[in-house]
Amino acid sequence: MRAALYDRYGPPEVLYVGKVPTPDVKPGEVLVRVRAVGVNGGELSGRAGKIKLVTGRRFPQRTGIDFAGEIAVVGASVTGVRVGEQVWGILPRRMGSAAEYVAVAAQKVSPAPENLTPEQAVSLVTGGTTSLTALTDKSALRPGERLLVRGGSGGVGSVGVQVGKMLGAHVTALAGAKNLDFVRGLGADEVFDYRAAGPAELGTFDVVLDTVGTQHRAFRRLLAPGGRMVAVSFDIDNGLRSLSYILASALQGSRRVRFFSGNPNTELLARLARYVEDGSIREVVDTVRPLTEIGEAHRALEAGGVRGKHVLRVE
Ligand SMILES: NC(=O)c1ccc[n+]([C@@H]2O[C@H](COP(=O)([O-])OP(=O)(O)OC[C@H]3O[C@@H](n4cnc5c(N)ncnc54)[C@H](OP(=O)(O)O)[C@@H]3O)[C@@H](O)[C@H]2O)c1
């Protein structure tokens, strides 16, 4: 099958589409014919070699974590799914969804939202599951509370703003100057240009959702009494310092920085699908390109100014 690969760490130009074996389907797994895959911020760091401790030194490497497509093969001992069913999901703790097929545990997929195309659906998988985990499980955001979303125009933040509104919060978002209207259109009550407005100018918040990874200390100071901060990213260029700060904050009890690495299951994916189908959350597609243009998609995300998600169509 065809898959996006790279033989060394480097700029977007290292990406190419080559041949790899179609994965075997083990008991408990399904084989999904991938129709669309998203380009997530973290995949740029992986390709650039910024997280070698995690990605290692074996090549070729694969990329892509989320996918939307249809079930091609149902493995032994899997029940409740059928060949041809439209599904979406995220690979658990490994890359490789930018490909024609993925084999994945059946508990890691759910039926995709019925009202969306695979390209639209995949724009929401990672951002949606991450935002739901952050704003419900990790911070228990309540109606009427004040939420700040850092990175409100990105893959996670653009869905985080919508989830915040769905949960009844007053949502303030930080985004680049050209994307303020886009983020307002997602439902944000207040939007600030992150290059113009410093943390001190924003007020206080009950929940801060940080998708950027820098300045955790400065943003945690914005928490009102009883406030919660959830971070899904850390500052890779100052990795040790940034992670130490997050770890040390555990001593702060409820005011700690709640950091997690998402690993969604069928239940969470199905919950997200329901919110999409009832219109609470809508797709956030910036561009759709064929898989062969994955290098351009990485370059576009790196250039900044993304509105939601760059999506790859797998023909
Ligand atoms: N822990 C988890 O489970 C989990 C899950 C998903 C993602 N992540 C991580 O979360 C991070 C974000 O992922 P993503 O896919 O949303 O990335 P993305 O699509 O590249 O979005 C990043 C956004 O942040 C904005 N931004 C950059 N600097 C900013 C600043 N100083 N203040 C406010 N906004 C700023 C960017 O705006 P401009 O382009 O206009 O600069 C962009 O819209 C990545 O590090 C990723 O690895 C973690």
Structural notes for this entry:
With 315 residues, the chain is α/β, with parallel strands linked by helices. The protein has two domains: 153 residues, Quinone Oxidoreductase, Chain A, domain 1; 136 residues, NAD(P)-binding Rossmann-like Domain (Rossmann fold, 3-Layer(aba) Sandwich), CATH 3.40.50.720. The protein contains nine helices and 16 strands. The strands form three sheets. Strands 3, 5, 6, 7, 8, 15 and 16 form a seven-stranded mixed beta sheet that branches. It has a six-stranded parallel beta sheet with strand order 11-10-9-12-13-14. Helix 3 packs across helix 4. The N and C termini lie close together (12 Å). The structure holds NADP nicotinamide-adenine-dinucleotide phosphate (NAP). NADP nicotinamide-adenine-dinucleotide phosphate binds next to helix 1, helix 3 and strand 10.
Q: In terms of topology, how is this protein built?
A:
Blueprint (H helix, E strand, L loop, with lengths): L1 E5 L9 E4 L9 E11 L1 H8 L3 H4 L5 E2 L3 E9 L11 E5 L10 E5 L3 E3 L6 H21 L7 E5 L6 H10 L3 E6 L4 H6 L4 E4 L11 E6 L5 H5 L2 E9 L7 H10 L8 E3 L6 H12 L7 E6 L3 H10 L5 E5 L2
Parallel strand pairs: 9-10, 9-12, 10-11, 12-13, 13-14, 15-16
Antiparallel strand pairs: 1-2, 1-4, 3-5, 3-7, 3-16, 5-6, 6-8
Helix pairs in contact: 3-4
This protein binds NADP nicotinamide-adenine-dinucleotide phosphate.
NADP nicotinamide-adenine-dinucleotide phosphate binds next to α1, α3 and β10.
